[in-house]
């Protein structure tokens, strides 16, 4: 009986060993073979060694595994989040829309103008000038003051109204800046959307700069200046037909108003003229400010292109070699040469390089001069 049991146990060991080699570990259920199974598993785990001639691990497979793990973690976190958090994220994304900035600026401007109209209406006897309608005159005075035109046809008389005019024009600068920034951001957002919508189709090279991914600066300046001249033309036609001024006086007053000069010898005197001026002056002031911004941008862009062309065309000198030698050896690497040329072009500064180097050092804790997958795993833990 003992011999028979020993023979059965040997057969069980042989069967368990073959099943272990085939990977069917879960099918082993014999009670007498359980200790032997654990022993065989321990030996198989301890005996696994990578052959020296085996190929290196597949980098793409590792990256796919990392992406799968990250997607699984993100999925688990999304399932744990409440609906309220999603609503908060949506609200946060909506706050970054440029259109919202324009709406907020327009709302603040409306409140600002209403305040100016109310103050003028309650103290209209303390202002001098030709009256047409109290509310229209108040709005006209507020727009002219905020746009810093200063026709002089309506002026404050008492110390209190003069102090109000000082505060009103200073605060008006801030509202003009907010509104202008919002309009510019919205226009740039529309340009970006138009560019991204044409990715599938070849964009017009006359309109867009493919290398910079934006509208050409010369075209932007031309469009801005065309809007300014359009404002001058519209103002001249209105003054000629409705204010009954001569052609020269109409063009004269329109040009001085758009450029916010306002000598004061000519102004809007009718009810319809002041209603038109309340809207036209605000639009034309924003158009002129945007044109000046684009002109400055064009000058800066031209200066950068000239500097870059000079930097790339000039020959490197021994002094440049020593200046570009970051590692303090007898030669410079390609990366050192690129960094030195970018510094000369004004694209980056020493502080930018230091920040990038500090970030690289955080990803390279062993100071090996390179970033490996284990380093990334360690930093993501």
UniProtKB/TrEMBL annotation:
It is a multi-pass membrane protein. InterPro entries: 2pore_dom_K_chnl, K_chnl_dom. GO terms for biological process: stabilization of membrane potential. It comes from Saponaria officinalis. One of its GO terms (cellular component) is plant-type vacuole membrane. Gene3D superfamilies: 1.10.287.70. Residues 1-49, 70-95 are annotated as: Disordered. Residues 76-91 have a biased composition (Acidic residues). This is Potassium channel domain-containing protein. Belongs to the two pore domain potassium channel (TC 1.A.1.7) family. It is found in: Membrane. It holds the Pfam family Ion_trans_2. Its main location: membrane. The chain crosses the membrane at residues 102-122, 134-151, 163-188, 221-242, 275-296. It comes from the Eukaryota. The keyword Amino-acid biosynthesis does not apply.
